[in-house]
């Protein structure tokens, strides 16, 4: 691939009729690609966009670092007596919180992207339509993995020691990716429905802040007033956090894992078709 | 205001039994606005069909429905015999669309864009790269293949758009204002590409607000106004329906215009139109002999003519005659999507 240093448009070369005709004369139609292959192609497109605009990875690196440092040192002493003791408990929570927070960018990216004419072209192609949206969601899984790595690496440096070792950590990240992928469908739908990025940002925050903070990420729910505790106990984030803690420290959390998987399935089953409905009917 | 074209360039018209597009009573509303309001269209296969109209006439909305991007609120449309709603996939596999707004990914390079589309059409990875390179070469974009499309000039941008539309040669291509905002040289390049497409048997449905573009390229023209087809036919048929030819006279000295107006009115016996240019006049004439007479009369009375032309009425005049309004082409393409529909 050529790289050019100048940004000025090069003088365009003339278009040769003969050449255009020869490029057209091959009317061979390749086999129509399957859903998996087109989804992968859209995943590749999202990866290319990261390559060209690497700044968009800022959120997956800055957010986790900021959250982890801030909450460990702000609350550690007060809540658990020491920061290193608190870290064992709060890191899995912050991991879940961070990744859940950055799922929001899925909607923002899509909201910006569909406004561009290129989606008209995608929608006029004879392909499995959801692949246009599934591809970027798969690419987001890469971002979520990156964010998880940042949290875990920094955590280990600060003194986090997962009792279940590497396998427990890998299992918990895998579960988190499934959960985040499912959550993303909420944002894809909102990203298509909301007119402006600002409005979308506002709504996303309104949902995410209570959902992530009013959970068991930072404090033991038993210290909360009973009505709040009741909410925390049904919050899917709470199940996700408990499952992550359990997997990382080697405690039995089969029930929580099951709940997380069911919630994920329900999210996809509800918001997947809704998203596609909105996408199909978008002007 | 351009002078009338004497003869539209003839294009090979491939005749085929199956029409490319048959639409009847198409309706699309956006809130209270009837963007397309009962449109009937029959586009034969082969050649260029021009949809001509000012901004807001419903051109873009119409082709978005025909390209299966918008669901009609009423009426039916078939593309190569396939219904655009119930057989959308069959339609999609035979058409391509190049929008008025960039329809490639600005963040990706020209090469990446074409590989992406080749992959989506089902080419293998290696074949996609070959096809992308071939198209870039043919469209004179080989030097810019590794550059992000957002850094392309307007003309290059339009060519990569069209290249992206012919990764697999479509049977019907929608070109939504393909030359809006282009300089004359880039415009000629796009016209060349369109002619090559037609020569290879692709049907082109072109929207334009440039009257001379429809005149130059289109075999058949439908004139759109307020979401309806208000006239259709060949360029010459449309012109003929408005009247005979027109005489355009430009004087050396604008002060002589009143005298010229009087003399012309006398000899030609038709209303004389005073143009915006203070030295120019025009008149619709039916009889060429009288024109010669009139010009002689002017010269005898010492009214100095700097230049004159006699030709068929321009499509501008056609539009004026059909709607009572002039179609003023807006040169900026910055109209928001919703309102330009």
Features:
heterodimer; A: about 280 residues; mainly alpha; elongated; B: about 350 residues; alpha/beta; Rossmann fold; Alpha-Beta Plaits; 2 domains; four-stranded antiparallel sheet; about 25% strand; disordered N terminus
Would you spell out the secondary-structure blueprint of this structure?
The complex is a heterodimer of chains A (283) and B (341).
Chain A: H1 17-25, H2 35-52, H3 58-80, H4 83-102, H5 104-114, H6 118-123, H7 131-158, H8 165-193, H9 197-213, H10 226-234, H11 236-249, H12 254-280
Chain B: E1 21-30, E2 33-43, E3 48-52, H1 59-66, E4 74-79, E5 82-83, H2 88-92, E6 95-98, H3 110-121, H4 125-138, H5 154-165, E7 172-176, H6 184-199, E8 203-208, H7 211-217, E9 220-225, E10 228-233, H8 235-242, E11 246-251, H9 257-268, E12 272-274, E13 280-284, H10 288-300, E14 305-311, H11 315-323, H12 337-340
Parallel strand pairs in B: 3-8, 3-9, 6-7, 7-8
Antiparallel strand pairs in B: 1-2, 1-4, 4-5, 9-10, 11-13, 11-14, 12-13
Helix pairs in contact in B: 3-4, 5-6, 8-11, 9-10
Structure description:
With 283 residues, chain A is mainly alpha-helical. Chain A has one domain (36-280). Chain A has helices at residues 17-25, 35-52, 58-80, 83-102, 104-114, 118-123, 131-158, 165-193, 197-213, 226-234, 236-249, 254-280. The longest helix of chain A is centred in the middle third of the chain and has 29 residues, at 165-193. Chain A is elongated. The model of chain A is unreliable at 1-12 (pLDDT under 50). With 341 residues, chain B is of the alpha/beta class. In chain B, the strands form 3 sheets. Chain B has a 6-stranded mixed sheet with strand order 6-7-8-3-9-10, with helices on both faces. In chain B, strands 2-1-4-5 form a 4-stranded antiparallel sheet. A 4-stranded antiparallel sheet of chain B has the order 12-13-11-14, covered by helices on one side. In chain B, a hairpin with a 5-residue loop joins β12 and β13 (280-284). In chain B, α3 (110-121) packs across α4 (125-138) and α9 (257-268) runs antiparallel to α10. The radius of gyration of chain B is 23 Å and the shape is elongated. The model of chain B is unreliable at 1-16 and 329-341 (pLDDT under 50). Chains A and B meet through α1, α2 and α6 of A and β6, α3, α4, α5 and α6 of B.
